[in-house]
Amino acid sequence: MKAGVIGATGYGGAELLRILQSHPTFQIESVYSSSQQGKSIVDHYPHLTDIVPMTLEEIDPAAIAQKLDIVFLATPSGVSSEIAPLLLKEGCTVIDLSGDFRLKDINDYEDWYKKKPAPQEWVDQAVYALPELNRSSIKDTKFISNPGCYSTATLLGLAPLVRQGLIEEKSVIVDAKSGVSGAGQTASFHTIYNELNENFKIYKVNAHQHIPEIEQMLSSLGYESPITFNSHLVPMTRGIMATIYATLKSDISQEEINKVYNDFYEDEPFIRVRKNGIFPATKEVYGSNFCDMGISVDTRTGRVTVVSVIDNLMKGAAGQAVQNANILFGLEETAGLHFIPVYP
Amino acid sequence: MKAGVIGATGYGGAELLRILQSHPTFQIESVYSSSQQGKSIVDHYPHLTDIVPMTLEEIDPAAIAQKLDIVFLATPSGVSSEIAPLLLKEGCTVIDLSGDFRLKDINDYEDWYKKKPAPQEWVDQAVYALPELNRSSIKDTKFISNPGCYSTATLLGLAPLVRQGLIEEKSVIVDAKSGVSGAGQTASFHTIYNELNENFKIYKVNAHQHIPEIEQMLSSLGYESPITFNSHLVPMTRGIMATIYATLKSDISQEEINKVYNDFYEDEPFIRVRKNGIFPATKEVYGSNFCDMGISVDTRTGRVTVVSVIDNLMKGAAGQAVQNANILFGLEETAGLHFIPVYP
Amino acid sequence: MKAGVIGATGYGGAELLRILQSHPTFQIESVYSSSQQGKSIVDHYPHLTDIVPMTLEEIDPAAIAQKLDIVFLATPSGVSSEIAPLLLKEGCTVIDLSGDFRLKDINDYEDWYKKKPAPQEWVDQAVYALPELNRSSIKDTKFISNPGCYSTATLLGLAPLVRQGLIEEKSVIVDAKSGVSGAGQTASFHTIYNELNENFKIYKVNAHQHIPEIEQMLSSLGYESPITFNSHLVPMTRGIMATIYATLKSDISQEEINKVYNDFYEDEPFIRVRKNGIFPATKEVYGSNFCDMGISVDTRTGRVTVVSVIDNLMKGAAGQAVQNANILFGLEETAGLHFIPVYP
Amino acid sequence: MKAGVIGATGYGGAELLRILQSHPTFQIESVYSSSQQGKSIVDHYPHLTDIVPMTLEEIDPAAIAQKLDIVFLATPSGVSSEIAPLLLKEGCTVIDLSGDFRLKDINDYEDWYKKKPAPQEWVDQAVYALPELNRSSIKDTKFISNPGCYSTATLLGLAPLVRQGLIEEKSVIVDAKSGVSGAGQTASFHTIYNELNENFKIYKVNAHQHIPEIEQMLSSLGYESPITFNSHLVPMTRGIMATIYATLKSDISQEEINKVYNDFYEDEPFIRVRKNGIFPATKEVYGSNFCDMGISVDTRTGRVTVVSVIDNLMKGAAGQAVQNANILFGLEETAGLHFIPVYP
Fold this sequence. Notes:
The structure is a homotetramer.
Chain A: E1 2-6, H1 11-20, E2 27-32, H2 41-44, E3 56-57, H3 61-67, E4 70-73, H4 80-89, E5 94-96, H5 106-113, H6 120-125, E6 127-128, H7 131-134, E7 143-145, H8 149-163, E8 173-178, H9 193-196, E9 201-203, H10 210-221, E10 228-233, E11 240-247, H11 254-264, E12 271-273, E13 291-298, E14 303-310, H12 314-328
Parallel strand pairs in A: 1-2, 1-4, 2-3, 4-5, 5-7, 6-7, 8-10, 12-13
Antiparallel strand pairs in A: 8-11, 9-10, 11-14, 13-14
């Protein structure tokens, strides 16, 4: 099957190329860029020398529809909202990695993204696809909205508790930390090496745009109240950890909680629940599509702490996008995603 | 005044030397080590070449009492408990940087440190000294127990809310992050560079020994319930950020909270409350004795988020120890502590 | 074919597992450790959860010979010299990643490694295998000595110049820099995070044990004089850059040198020579088996500068070992080594 | 004495403020910026909160001459060449930290900087000031050109060898490495965190603009040939190491060389020559004005290796500028520069 990547010069785009290049079914047919067309992708990314010898093409929706079986949109929020409809109208199958089609209420989008939302009709058609939580909705669609990185780590960490009705409403607090690659390639005083190295920062305090996305999905799982969520920048490139706090409704033991998680994720190829008393570090999923978890019941406070880690560019972006593409086309869900974490 | 540092080869010890070497009143008279006596300190710390040309001495309490006006104990927990009493019996003035004399209930010490506690009589004599919160207890004592690094960042962040009675019991959650220097010089598989670089870890989940210390002080400030607290390792050397969450008792505006903090810390030379909407990063206090803060009221959830940062080796250890020594001897509280953050 | 890894808990061992686990021909049959036998490898390396579910076995040469087609010895210098002979006597095919069998003159080994050398008879049988330079010697052997990481980067960078007789004797200076993973898992004051982060160090000044190894191979390529070589530690985990300086014998232009390199490495799947004026950074080979190069002729001084980068755990250790194993068994040389650099 | 800093929002400017703020004689009177005038410096640098409460002023040469005793120009190359003459015409005493007045031959400037040079008349008046090498020229001048960071580390490392005539012409190779703060605050794809973290890069291969500056000074010391020099970016913020190679003219022992260095720098307060066999790491001078060195004679090759480290923002920029200012005004040379390295 022929695949294309729009926004191939971004980090999400580069990660898609890394995955697709060795995918058993998808084949990289074309790469696109709105700003660097005509340039070789190797000029931007020397690490792809001899591997992806392609020239960045102009985005021509009709030609794309003709040529490709699937298009990955690795463009930033505010850009996908313009390109996706053009592609969909031509009949393309589209997986969008941006935040533009995740929020069903376009007013929420305006409030949190401070940008013009995508047209409601296309938002309505997009399937928000987090396979472990709504796999059945993904098959046979043509337009997938890929979840955000923080949302993925948080929702996978919370889902067993919420689905089993174990935690109190209004009790969820998520303290999330991300490597800097989540910020992409925007060059500003705030993203240069000197400002971030040997430094730890909080940003978008109580205002991160993944909050409504998480709440929307939590609501569908049965948790109806707003959450407290904060995001921090860690001086490293890849990796997200969400440290999740919630109040347990009743006395439930560590062993019972462990069992809930193990049962919930028993058949999931990309979820690894650590043994009792062990908690994952971000490097243990580096470069892979895994989401690893550890859970601790604190009897002193009646709260549970869930630690959930992913590689933000893999399970948090490109890896999950390919996982969704696999499901959409009825392929083996893990096809092309057998990456072992690079350690150390 | 003649000062000595016991445990001078540790990082807390090195930081004490950096401060004391340019202190207007204290003068480094002797440095001590239980394991490296007879060795020049420069052999361990080449950065002190030509600056601290001393040889590490054996710990002889009687001789120390004779010679020194003040002794800083920069030894680890479990060691201070043995050395401090010997020094105190000889009449020394002691500032202990370890955790051995912080918890008034020695059963708590055993539970959280999993070590044999110091004798109750000496624990009783120790003054837990966090100047901004209990300055008046510090003067004219002979034995100071210096607060822990996480405790300092957390307590300074929470104090205005607790003292003003603004937050609900049982609502405090502290998600704390530290640079690796807090782990000292213990060499193990878990502290080598390769295991920590480009990695983010949680450790001692719901079990950090600073929890009872924080709760003990919070209780004296008027907050009586257990807190949820977790600690993480950031791939950087220095710096702590405590991200603190609590539920507000009533509708209180961002402006009112800002005023509470500004009033509370108005005359404090080492506390810097950021302007509304601005939050500190750890590097903004690097190498200095400042504790910087930012506060955010989240009207969606009724919670407040307080961000508190310190340099763990300064305000979190050596800097605060010298601040306490200044108070104890009636010196200018900021004497020898005018370090400007090293930035970038 | 059944493969085993001895020393599987080291970083070289972990990297071998990452490669072999997806190798089309080799299959990980057993993993061995001299110190942790009986323990699950996942207990040491949680990142291998659900991937390498094996228990570390005791090293029993006879059983290993019975069971395995090939054994990778990822043990440190001084250990391989004892284990390899036992395996070879039993008829095993062995690829040794240590330095114990690289130096043909065992007196050199003693001088540079300051350890007891391996028996001369086994050293004589070992084939030093750097495929791009002596591929033909590798086939049909049973005992391969895998080159050192610095040696690989340096020799591949120098080979075209030396083979073409372009540089003057006595003119080679190699200034090499490595990420910390080259130091393995030895835990000491000098390898802890705090001592290496935000720091740049030189070590083993003019005394690195890879010097005689490089000189031995250079001699076989036609360069007979000693080289100046120094090694530095970079605060990062993976990657080596060798910056190589040599005096050109005659006026030779940048274009001519470029052609020499392009011709020399034209058919090599793992060597990527950059375009004129472009030089590789270490991250451009991260996690892959590539060696990337850039060359600059300095007409002011009559010297050439060659920049050669590898991932020290891949082309500098495990990747090259598998490449050698592929050659040895007549497999496709790139089998199981199609790793795209992980970027960023 | 009243001091001003032009270009105070740059990193060199920030470091000047850190030094001057506690200087016994100089007092920060005004700070200037060409682009951010009217803004508080704290808005750009929150770490200066409560310390440097100034507003950035417009650059008015006449007013500056009226008001200030000394002006530090911490502006980039290409900017100083325009501002310095305006200040000098008004009679200001100026210390310029840029490269604009270092090269006596303005054609060299054009060749290496690829920018329009400063007027020859002003270049002629500038005194290139590296105190340890030409202290006597510095007193009683009004216009100082402060050396480059790489130049400082390299020249101090080479000077004893060159002055004593110990090394052969045409033999010097300098392999230099710098933390990223040397690149300042320019925001581009190449300076963002993600491109530099966990990466090691060479740049300006055989083309760094400090080459002619080093050669100009070496020439005045007695070494007349061009040098080979390369610069690399280390994933850290501060610190430079120059690894220097040269061929010894005759058999000279390690002990003799050590004596040469110890004698040469015996009375220098900021130079620390390590004991035989010990080599400095960059962190050992972090935040201080020291230049630390180690020397190794390699009898195998007849070469000497000199390792020279500085903090690029201190001895490589702001620290040296203040040292020069001290000399210029006849103050104690170390005044305001007693910074102990921040370690770890």
